[in-house]
Design goal:
alpha+beta; 6 strands; 44% strand
Length: 71
């Protein structure tokens, strides 16, 4: 479905929002770019906790420049 809604970062990068069950949704790869743009010294660590045929569950951790876990 084509959704004309967008969200813009402080730096001016614009990302498209999708309709997810009637609510605006920003895809994960755009969220990663957004974090990298606004906080270039932060780290995003990913760990695949469960994997099956055609699916997986991942855990992502966001840390600041001092290694403190933020999310």
């Amino acid at each position: 479905m084509n959704n004309p809604q967008t969200v813009r970062t402080k730096a001016g990068t614009e990302f498209p929002l999708r309709d997810m069950k009637g609510k605006p949704y920003l895809d994960a790869w755009y969220r990663v770019v957004w974090v990298r743009e606004e906080h270039p010294t932060w780290a995003i660590e990913n760990e695949f906790t469960h994997m099956g045929e055609g699916w997986c569950i991942a855990k992502s951790t966001i840390k600041d420049e001092n290694g403190r876990i933020l999310a």
